[in-house]
Amino acid sequence: MKKLVLAAVAAVALAGCGGDDTAGNLTVEGNVRGLKKGVLYLQQVADTSLVTLDSVVVKGNGEFRLTSPVDGADIFYLYLDKADNNQLNDRIVFFAEPGTIRIDTEWDAFESEAAISGSAANEKFAEYRKIQSRYHVQQLELARAMGELQQPQDSAALDSLDRVGQRLTLRSYLYALNFALNNTDSHLAPFVAITEVSDANPKYLDSIYQALSPAVAESKYGKQLKELLSEQRSQAENPD
User: Fold this and answer.
1) Which of 29, 97, 105, 226 allows an S-S link to 73, with CB 3.0 to 4.6 Å?
2) pLDDT tens across 155-178, in order?
3) Confidence of residue 201 (pLDDT cuts 50, 70, 90)
4) Number of domains, the chain
5) In the chain, where does DSSP find H-type helix?
6) 29-43, 83-97, 159-173: which is most confident
7) Which structural domain, as residue segments, surrounds residue 20?
8) What is the pLDDT of residues 123-141, one digit of tens each?
């Protein structure tokens, strides 16, 4: 019994030392205003499959609470099945660590009206997505403009738009690299490096990894970045 008490005290002490990637429970609570009936799911991608960590049936009141053990900071999803045969605007993506995060939103604007609080990592995630979404919108507008051009008369204009597209892609890529380099104390740094710029020059990825805080370096994505760098070094040493 004494050993169990000591173990519990040690776990609490570790949780208070700022290592927010320590395995523990993630609790998601909040309110879906206007929701009278539906099912909310806390989800995560595991081994390329979307799995449900917890769920709750909502009846007459939009207040909810979901909880599940998690391995550390990662991408999670709050999915609403409101039985309206509409697959749009029903899933909120967020980045969170073990602890409590709050999500308040509207049943008929579930994703677009979501207000998320309680996670410093998610604030960084929202900042990153906001900038990248601007590049994405510009790329969509550019693709539409290119599609409206008539060949071969507009070949010069098409070439010009293609160069604009290449510059947009480069700006988006450089933003991702700079974001990771400037946020090495956040779990978002290795996440962005792995998911957005894994094909970057190894020296840039190594600069990101070397600057990570110890806690972030030992996180899921920190370890994946280390493995990626190891693979790149191995390929460079053995090109055949």
Assistant:
1) 97
2) 788 888 889 989 999 999 999 999
3) very high
4) 2
5) 2-15, 120-148, 155-182, 188-195, 202-211, 214-217, 220-237
6) 29-43
7) 2-118
8) 999 999 999 999 999 999 9
Which of 56, 91, 118 is the last residue before a domain boundary? Answer: 118
Which of 88, 85, 53, 52 lies closest to 67 in space, CA to CA?
Answer: 53
Q: Are residues 196 and 127 in the same domain?
A: yes
> What are φ and ψ of residue 23, in 5° steps?
-60, 140
Residue 52's alpha-carbon distances to 41, 44, 57, 79, in angstroms, are 6, 7, 14, 9
For 166-205, b/e burial (b = at least 16 CB within 10 A) is eebeeebeebbbebbeebbebbbbbbbbbebbeebebeeb
Contact 27, 98 (CB under 8 A): no
Indicate the pTM of the whole model.
0.81
User: Phi and psi (nearest 5°) for 111?
Assistant: -85, -45
* 9 and 68 assigned to the same domain: yes
Which strand ranges, in their side-by-side order, compose the sheet holding 37-46?
49-59, 37-46, 74-81, 91-96
Same domain, 144 and 108: no
| 33 CB-near residues (< 8 Å, 6+ apart) | 62, 104, 105, 106, 107
How far is Cα 195 from Cα 129, in angstroms, rounded to an integer?
13
